[in-house]
Each structure stands twice: as C-alpha cells, then as structure tokens.
Structure to design on (207 residues):
C-alpha cells in the first residue's frame, strides 16, 4: 500500500476534491459501520475479506477491497466524508498542514500551541501541554533556554563536580567553535576538531 498505509481500512484516502483523510477502522464494529455507510453491507462475511479488520492485510484481500474503497471515497469531497463518517461514529481525521492543524478546533480546544517571548526572536509559537493531570496545572510560560543558560545554577547545585563539568564543556566549545570565512556562521564539525588546524573555514570545508 506504500505511504497510504498497509491495512486497507486503516489508511489514507483521497477524496473528490483532491484532499485527503485518514480513516481508522481498527475494530470489527467500525468495519461493519463503514460498509453500511458506503452501501456495501453485502461484503459483511465475504470469504474474500477474512478476519477484518487486521486480517485484511493478505495480498488477495488488499487487491480486492483497496481499489473498491478508493473509488468510493473519490465520489464525495472530504468535508462531506468527514461529516458522514463522524455521524456513523467511525474514527476519521483530515490530513492537514501544520497551519491548518494549529487553527483547527481540536488544537485550539486542547491548547496544543501557545505563544511565548524569546529573548532573541521575540514572540514565537511553540507546542503547548500535550498531557494534562487532574492534580496539576502546568503551563508553558517561557521559550526554551539557550545552550548553557543554566550551567552556573546546575554547577552550584552539584558543587565541585558541576564546576569541573562546566569548565570542561567550555573548553570543548572554545576549541571547536569556528567561524566561517564566507558568511561568519559558527561551524561545528561532525568529526574530531583535531583535524582542523586553521582558525576559520568556509562553509564548504570538509568535515
């Protein structure tokens, strides 16, 4: 089935308006409801479709049911299929771009994104809380810290061990942080910094 999905009733489908949805008939009940919805209840118990839904991965079953369903879904636009499938209580979601998803009622109602102020980039939109707990009310209130921003605080908690680790990290950074002669960007080699003898390299330098 390629990128559409291996299970012919748990996969992507293209609709009449060239937009996509993902239908997830992961139980026998969903399979039965789906066949009734598309007017193919005659396929219930068909020996060519053994042990639905997960038994439908057999090559012969896929070759039979996948083209049939693809043809069915191409008869209506996506919004109509979403409405019909949801009314039948069949799991389905539209395939969306990042912008579409963040603007969706699902993302908004679950607060899946929030805006915080980054000291360098200003207001930035980042992911919100993916999980909520009954006895906690956490929130995303700041942007991610810059590398090394908490070194001093962690070193203070760890004492001498933390101080030594911080000093070692700084020494490594000073040794490998090189500036590109072409654009001035910081270059971090993928291999040992000992291979570099010059203070600067162009972006195209071998690593």
């Amino acid at each position: 089935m390629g990128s559409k999905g291996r299970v012919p009733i748990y996969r992507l489908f293209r609709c009449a308006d060239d937009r996509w949805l993902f239908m997830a008939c992961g139980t026998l009940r969903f399979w039965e409801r789906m066949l009734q919805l598309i007017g193919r209840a005659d396929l219930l118990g068909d020996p060519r479709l053994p042990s639905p839904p997960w038994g439908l991965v057999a090559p012969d079953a896929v070759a039979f049911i996948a083209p049939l369903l693809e043809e069915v879904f191409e008869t209506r636009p996506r919004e109509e299929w979403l409405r019909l499938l949801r009314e039948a209580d069949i799991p389905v979601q539209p395939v969306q771009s990042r912008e579409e998803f963040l603007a969706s009622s699902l993302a908004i109602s679950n607060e899946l994104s929030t805006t915080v102020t980054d000291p360098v980039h200003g207001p930035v939109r980042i992911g919100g809380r993916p999980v909520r707990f009954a006895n906690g009310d956490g929130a995303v209130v700041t942007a991610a810290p810059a590398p090394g921003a908490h070194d001093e605080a962690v070193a203070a908690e760890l004492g001498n061990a933390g101080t030594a680790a911080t000093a070692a990290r700084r020494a490594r950074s000073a040794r490998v942080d090189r500036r590109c002669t072409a654009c001035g960007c910081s270059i971090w080699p993928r291999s040992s910094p000992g291979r570099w003898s010059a203070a600067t390299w162009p972006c195209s330098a071998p690593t």
About this structure: The chain has a mean pLDDT of 81.
